[in-house]
């Protein structure tokens, strides 16, 4: 009886700082509540109670770091892609990843493996606003890999590259898409909870996944060099025309990609026309290093 009372007392007495440490340890390592209980000398029941609560608070507090941009901000990003990656029009790189959720064993509504059909992108809230042109500035588009359908608002690489123009386009495309590869790569390497099936109720797990994304964006803003020190992300050496791969690539297995999307032929033809416009990368849109790059792949 006494021990029980004492436990209740201790549970209430866990300082906020310690709770935050436990949560950060949980998110960054992905270890079980059982091990956390041993490391931190806090009862498992109390850990399993406060982790979702603290995540909730963090999720709310960092909400501004996971927002859809407004038109002005998209325009700034577009300018950035033009200057930094020589890809005019591009407003961002998109990727789709699976994070597995495994509902606790005594829960009959297991959600593991759900949504693994081909329609993840089409079912997303991004799809309709990208499709009807209300998201991006006039003429803006994203770049995405083979999981995505080719559209005027979503360009892909050329599947084959027999011509110089196509090689150069693909080379620029790869550079622009590197952004999102690195973002997801760093995210999973810093928040290892994402690297294996999350053993929580679906609702809690989704909040937790969002919290890691918010933390990632916040840390990139507030602690760029401690969160992503030099060498951790891909680095383009423009003196030697080589790309040095970020260390995350050898530390983790990338998250599995979402399934390939079904393609709508009508929009595909318009998009192929748009992609062909980028043949100007070869002449007036050329940059000095590009032929070197394609010859040294
Ligand atoms: C685009 O789609 C979104 C979501 O369906 C809708 O809210 C918005 O009003 C649409 N905008 C235009 C310009 O059609
Ligand atoms: C380019 O390559 C040379 C020779 O391999 C090397 O010494 C130099 O550090 C490289 N440049 C950069 C910016 O890494
Ligand atoms: C889509 O295009 C493929 C060839 O690229 C063709 O075989 C197919 O019939 C087309 N589908 C529709 C619905 O037009």
UniProtKB/TrEMBL annotation:
GO terms for cellular component: nucleus. InterPro entries: HARBI1-like, HARBI1_dom. Its cofactor is a divalent metal cation. GO terms for molecular function: hydrolase activity; metal ion binding; nuclease activity. Pfam families: DDE_Tnp_4. It is found in: Nucleus. The keyword tRNA-binding does not apply. The keyword Transmembrane helix applies. It comes from the Eukaryota. The chain crosses the membrane at residues 20-40. Keywords: Hydrolase, Membrane, Metal-binding, Nuclease, Nucleus, Transmembrane, Transmembrane helix. Belongs to the HARBI1 family. This is DDE Tnp4 domain-containing protein. The lineage of its organism: Eukaryota, Metazoa, Ecdysozoa, Arthropoda, Hexapoda.
């Amino acid at each position: 009886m006494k021990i029980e009372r004492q436990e209740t007392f201790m549970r209430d007495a866990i300082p906020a700082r310690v709770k935050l440490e436990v949560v950060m340890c949980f998110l960054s390592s992905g270890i079980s509540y059982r091990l956390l209980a041993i490391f931190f000398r806090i009862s498992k029941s109390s850990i399993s109670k406060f982790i979702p609560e603290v995540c909730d608070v963090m999720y709310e507090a960092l909400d501004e770091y996971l927002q859809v941009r407004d038109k002005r901000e998209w325009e700034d990003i577009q300018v950035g892609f033009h200057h930094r990656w020589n890809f005019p029009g591009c407003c961002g790189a998109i990727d789709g990843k699976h994070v597995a959720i495994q509902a606790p064993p005594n829960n009959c509504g297991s959600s593991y493996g759900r949504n693994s059909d081909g329609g993840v992108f089409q079912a997303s809230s991004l799809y309709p606003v990208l499709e009807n042109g209300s998201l991006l500035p006039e003429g803006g588009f994203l770049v995405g890999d083979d999981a995505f359908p080719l559209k005027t608002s979503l360009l892909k690489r050329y599947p084959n590259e027999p011509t110089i123009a196509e090689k150069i386009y693909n080379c620029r495309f790869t550079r622009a898409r590197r952004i999102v590869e690195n973002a997801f790569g760093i995210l999973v390497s810093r928040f290892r909870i994402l690297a294996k099936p999350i053993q929580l109720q679906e609702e809690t797990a989704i909040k937790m996944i969002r919290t890691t994304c918010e933390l990632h964006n916040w840390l990139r803003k507030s602690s760029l060099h401690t969160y992503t020190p030099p060498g951790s992300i891909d680095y383009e050496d423009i003196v030697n025309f080589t790309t040095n791969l970020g260390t995350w690539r050898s530390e983790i297995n990338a998250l599995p990609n979402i399934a390939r999307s079904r393609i709508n032929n009508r929009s595909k033809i318009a998009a192929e026309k748009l992609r062909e416009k980028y043949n100007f990368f070869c002449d007036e849109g050329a940059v000095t290093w590009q032929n070197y790059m394609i010859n040294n792949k």
